[in-house]
Amino acid sequence: xxxxxxxxxxxxxxxxxxxxxxxxxxxxxxxxxxxxxxxxxxxxxxxxxxxxxxxxxxxxxxxxxxxxxxxxxxxxxxxxxxxxxxxxxxxxxxxxxxxxxxxxxxxxxxxxxxxxxxxxxxxxxxxxxxxxxxxxxxxxxxxxxxxxxxxxxxxxxxxxxxxxxxxxxxxxxxxxxxxxxxxxxxxxxxxxxxxxxxxxxxxxxxxxxxxxxxxxxxxxxxxxxxxxxxxxxxxxxxxxxxxxxx
Amino acid sequence: xxxxxxxxxxxxxxxxxxxxxxxxxxxxxxxxxxxxxxxxxxxxxxxxxxxxxxxxxxxxxxxxxxxxxxxxxxxxxxxxxxxxxxxxxxxxxxxxxxxxxxxxxxxxxxxxxxxxxxxxxxxxxxxxxxxxxxxxxxxxxxxxxxxxxxxxxxxxxxxxxxxxxxxxxxxxxxxxxxxxxxxxxxxxxxxxxxxxxxxxxxxxxxxxxxxxxxxxxxxxxxxxxxxxxxxxxxxxxxxxxxxxxx
Lengths: 246, 246
Prior knowledge:
homodimer; alpha/beta; Rossmann fold; five-stranded parallel sheet; four-stranded parallel sheet; 12 helices; 9 strands
């Protein structure tokens, strides 16, 4: 099976990492819209427009399914993408919410949802989790985490100041949804701040979801990888090499 | 005279502020490419492509000149814009370098240039200032300053941590070029860090440049203002109201 992974930039490589580790696919084709990154500060119509262009891009390839690794795309554009795509389209929000349901049985648990402004404003996580019976939800858009991660500052004083700024009045949650592809890269400091919280990672969640959906029986010890970007594809390939240890 | 001001986002409003204060224009039409902001992390070809689209946009208006408020656009796209524009196109880099030349007579002065990655990589300031005889130049791209300003954190711990991160090993300069439209908004903390430095502001520099170029004799106590954005124009108008005290 061949999968096209779409992200606003390089962040979706954290999802590719999970797909690779679980050896689910024969081929992974990645497209990062690096010329227009970030999506998380853009509005719904713009995100839909750009996401439909990504569907067009993947029509040039013989893929079986498309995964929107980007939470902002998953929040706003999945329905529209499904209408025009000749392949199945999966987002990461429903998988994330289901992963939380699997991990946290207590419906009174405190759930903290971190995401981009677009993802948080969409209220997609909140509505899904409410429909599963969870009521103690807190949503937050710590916007600066994203450029801090992009600057490669996965630890240190700036990240600590930013965590203080956004999280200082936040009670210890029972679970923390890493609702942006960048946040797994600072999972360590976040876990340290919230030591008892179960962390929900989009990459792991979509793997679990696809495994349930397709009941894969075959594993691929070698996966063909192709990387595309709307600008500076070499930069993307370099980050891929580092993060995915290629 | 009517001017079209182009910026990657809202930052160029700091330039509009200077144009307004000096009452040079009958009408200012602003276009912020908010759907694709920021430009400063994008590569040369992308910046040129987007800037040429902005020229097309302004062809719909009866403007006399166009000002690229964005330093990244000024660094990479001015020549290309001039080739296709039916009006005069001005960037902010040459004006900034000339403003520095007016302010700093000592050619051995220490000059610190702060800008986006695109602006710094282009070396446009460096080459111009070298050609004027300045040799002690240091260029730096403190990338996080931009999202910090966009988050409205014009002071406080995150900004201080970021200033420590980028500037801690930097000697006190004699002049500091604020080579990004966002930086005038943190001019206070930067001046506090470098108390003896003369700060060069793109908005003031372009005003000075245009005054020399056109020898304006008329002042406009009322300026017609129009704001356009490639997404969320209402958001842009709100920021304009606040920053420009409309």
